[in-house]
Amino acid sequence: MTTPQPPADPAEMTTFIETQYHAAHRAQLPELAELSAKVERVHAGAPGVPAGLAEVLGHMIGALEVHMKKEELILFPAIRKGGMPGIENPIAVMRADHDDHEEEVSRIRALTDDLTLPEGACRSWTELYRGLEHFLNELDAHIRLENDVLFPQFEPASA
């Protein structure tokens, strides 16, 4: 399944981000955290088990929800109005959040040996890593779209 092309208009892009990425993250992460907890419980002590992954995903659910709410309630409405004085400040906060999300992605990759399944992995474990791969790809595309395309349109040019 390929993600549709985002619109070029910044206001339309914010709606695209909310419907394409925010909604997907809200649906995916709780399922992945639950599946991870199951895999960790059933395979406790087994070689390659991603011990601690459910906890990381649980934290990420909260952190992403706060981040997405800040975008939906503060930044995106301002962008839809064509910007506002000082908009670079909430954008800087969003960029810092993105850096934090990327650190969590690194932790996920470390805990899962970069999503490498052990030999003979069960269906749940396989489903977990397949779902994680999709989520991580979508999160990366989401962050790139905001950092590289949307935000620069509202930040002052560097001197």
Automatic annotation (TrEMBL):
Keyword terms: Cytoplasm, Iron, Metal-binding
PANTHER family attached to this UniProt entry: IRON-SULFUR CLUSTER REPAIR PROTEIN YTFE
Name this protein carries in UniProt: Hemerythrin-like domain-containing protein
Chain ranges of the Hemerythrin-like domain: 20-153
Superkingdom to which the source organism belongs: Bacteria
Subcellular location: Cytoplasm
Keyword Metal-binding recorded: yes
Classification via InterPro entries: Hemerythrin-like, RIC_family
Gene Ontology MF terms: metal ion binding
